[in-house]
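Reading a protein record of the kind used here takes only a little practice. The integers have meaning only within a learned vocabulary of local backbone shapes. With that in mind, consider the following protein and its fold in token form:
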Amino acid sequence: MRAYVGIGANLGDREATMREALARLGEVEGVRVVAVSSFRETDPVGLLDQPRFLNAAAELETALSPRALLDALLAVERSLGRTRDGSRYGPRTIDLDLLLYGEEIVAEPGLTVPHPRLHERAFALEPLHELDPELALPGRGPLETLLRNLESP
């Protein structure tokens, strides 16, 4: 199955941590990193008084279920020192979000795919669009249209 993961960090050596997260993700059985977008500086969302983020997206080929892939992402985060005891939108060493899992729509406790706020976040849509300009968000339409709508006043 083709899946897309958002990657972000705003603490420490952001790029090195993101690259290490990708390397560790590629070591997970049943996961292959197919492509990675360029890294881009972005402003924080939610809690504005924090360092800027470095964001990217990765395209994966996976044999894992959505839940097992999420568990693998959380394990990689923990292995790189990510804790979840602060603000939901607060600073973080690494953030790995399951954005898309094929064309599936998943709504389970603790797992929503596509990512529930993906359609309103240029910092996640732009790297996805870079990886696949023809990609569409299940239930919401082409990424290109979603990005254009974000740019409109």
